[in-house]
Amino acid sequence: MTDRTLTAALVDHLRQAIVAGRFKPGDRLRLTDLRDELGVSLSPLREALMSLSAERLVDVEAQRGFRMPPVSEATLKEITTLRIEFESMALRAAMEHGDLAWESGIAAALHRLLGTGRAPSGSGLQEWESAHRAFHMSLLSACAMPLLLNFCSLLHDHSDRYRRLFLRTHAGDRDVPGEHTRIAELTMARKVDQACALLRQHIARTGVNVRRALTSEPGAAASPSPKPKKPQGRSGRPGSSRTTDRR
After folding, report:
1. Picking from 56-70, 143-157, 214-228, which range would have the lowest pLDDT averaged per residue?
2. What is the pLDDT of residue 120?
3. What is the rounded average pLDDT of the residues 52-66?
4. Which of 12, 123, 203, 214 is the most exposed, having the fewest neighbouring CB atoms within 10 Å of its CB?
5. Residue by residue, what is the 3-state secondary structure of 54-104?
6. Average pLDDT, stretch 65-77?
7. How far is the C-alpha of 119 from the C-alpha of 22, rounded, in Å?
8. CA–CA distance from 246 to each of 23, 53, 134 (Å)?
9. What does the pLDDT average to over 54-64?
């Protein structure tokens, strides 16, 4: 495997772990631990984390390495607002350009999603999450705007991270399978305004549910406060501190 291929594989692997909620907000990403776990050298691992930092899925701290971004209501609101605007724009364009193959892709993705069955945890949940993402991206896939599609995919990553962190123990408040089915039907029927309106409502409702879960669990939502620096001794040498691995 070339260095470039290895780095790309690490980016995909770490992105999936981040989106799945493996790391808590504020967790320090220890390079040596990840290196030993993944069996790779530090160079491609750093490159992968820098790539993810460009997507704001990882924070870079000067002279201190990498850390998971904190979570907040303000960031969740921004993610939700951007998803609503960008995905409805992409869906509108997809309905203009989409052909029979696009419609068949939507139907197949919906069939897989409805047939997956959402399990509370483990591999069953991951299978549902994969099918869920594939369905939403299938709706937008014919938009003929690669940059917009890339933005939508990135926003979906951020949205999924919040949703999976805070909705694990919260039951849904609506018929999500029914919403997915109706969005697909309206899209394939080229009922542009109705399909876009329902998609916007679907995304907004998810944002509301995640916000409620986030604010009801302040401990989970809070980022760890940085440890105060130890005062300098008479020798003028700063004290040292260790950060506890929270994983």
Report:
1. 214-228
2. 55
3. 91
4. 123
5. HCCCCEEECCCEEECCCCCHHHHHHHHHHHHHHHHHHHHHHHHHCCHHHHH
6. 95
7. 17
8. 9, 20, 32
9. 90
Find, among 164, 115, 184, 148, the residue nearest to 16 by Cα: 164
Please tell me the distance from the alpha carbon of residue 45 to that of residue 29, in angstroms, as a whole number. 11
Alpha carbon 111 to chain centroid distance?
23
CA distance linking residue 91 with residue 184, whole number of Å: 11
Give bridge partners of residue 59 from the DSSP assignment: 67
pLDDT band at 167, cuts 50/70/90? Answer: confident
Is 103 exposed, middle or buried (CB count within 10 Å of its CB: 0-12, 13-18, 19+)? middle
39 CB neighbour count, 10 Å cutoff: 6
Which amino acid is residue 192, in one-letter code? V
The two three-digit tokens of residue 16, written as one number: 């999936």
The strand pairing partners of 66, in sequence order, are 29, 60
Confidence band, pLDDT 50/70/90 cuts, at residue 173: low
Distance CA 241, CA 225 (A): 14
81-103: average pLDDT: 98
Bridge partners of 67, per DSSP, are 28, 59
pTM assigned to the model? 0.82
CB 168 within 8 A of CB 48: no
